Amino acid sequence: MTKGVKRNYEAMPVSDEDAAYVRALVIHEDSGVLAFNKPSGLPVQTRDVEDRTLDRLMAAFARSNGKRPRLVHRLDAQTSGVIIAAKTQPAAAFLSEAFAERQVSKTYLALVSGSPFKDGETEFSMPLSRHIARPGLELMRASRPGDQKSQAAVTRWRVLASSGSAHLLAVEPLTGRMHQIRVHLSIEGRPILGDPYYGGAGTLKGEPVPRLMLHAASLDIPHPTAGGRIVINAPPPADFIAVVTAAGIEMPSDLALNAG
Q1: 6-10, 156-160, 206-210: the lowest-pLDDT one
Q2: Active-site choice (16, 18, 51, 76)
Q3: Is 16 considered catalytic here?
Q4: Which residue segments constitute the domains of the chain, with CATH numbers given?
Q5: pLDDT tens digits, residue range 131-181?
Q6: Cα separation, 123 vs 160, whole angstroms
Q7: What are the DSSP E strand ranges found in 188-227?
Q8: To the nearest 10°, the Cα dihedral for 70, 71, 77, 80?
Q9: Any idea what DSSP says for residue 98?
Q10: How far apart are CA 142 and CA 130, in angstroms?
Q11: Which of 78-89 are b and which e, b meaning 16 or more Cβ less than 10 Å from the residue's Cβ?
Q12: Among 227, 211, 219, which Cα is nearest to 77's?
């Protein structure tokens, strides 16, 4: 949860319509974990408690004592895909530590533009720093001398399919910095389509790209109650597949996201 922001969702129950909406996003549920396939455009959290966010919609799963599942990580509002919540406080503490200790593996799909890639897997390492792009807009950039709180950042990617200057990638962030995948691919000269902040093209073959073409496809986590590990996969949504298809790329039937 964002520091310094007080939230009082318990006093703001969700409507029947919103409850049905968020329940339809569930892709996995067990004794400790609730997982969603979040659509592009739905914020995870904002500073306004009245906003329709995934965090607020957790009220649809509140128990009789008012306790709600707790989201233990975040996705950018325009990124779709798998995001998990813990169903109990002990599960939340366990999973929060797993994310902090990098015991979680994440794989994203990204549609990028640019020159052809070299064969094989690329591991890209570049420290990042936050900066104020304009009042009210904080972004990331390659660290510069004098930047405060420079953070190491490492991202791994490989090409799944290409068509001309469009490339579908499987991407693994090995660290968890804000906008890490977006800024690293932009620095490499392969910005994600539909990314207005890091140089992504807003059109494809003359047609608008309706969303950021980044999808959290797979999450491999240690299980907080059952032990062992589980992998939760989130199928790419129709709006993502439509742009990939328009780029001339056939979505692989077997993505094999965790290969390599």
Answers
A1: 6-10
A2: 76
A3: no
A4: 9-246 (3.30.2350.10)
A5: 999 998 999 999 999 888 899 999 999 999 999 999 999 999 999 999 999
A6: 15
A7: 203-204, 207-208, 214-222
A8: -120
A9: H
A10: 9
A11: bbbbbbbbbbbe
A12: 211
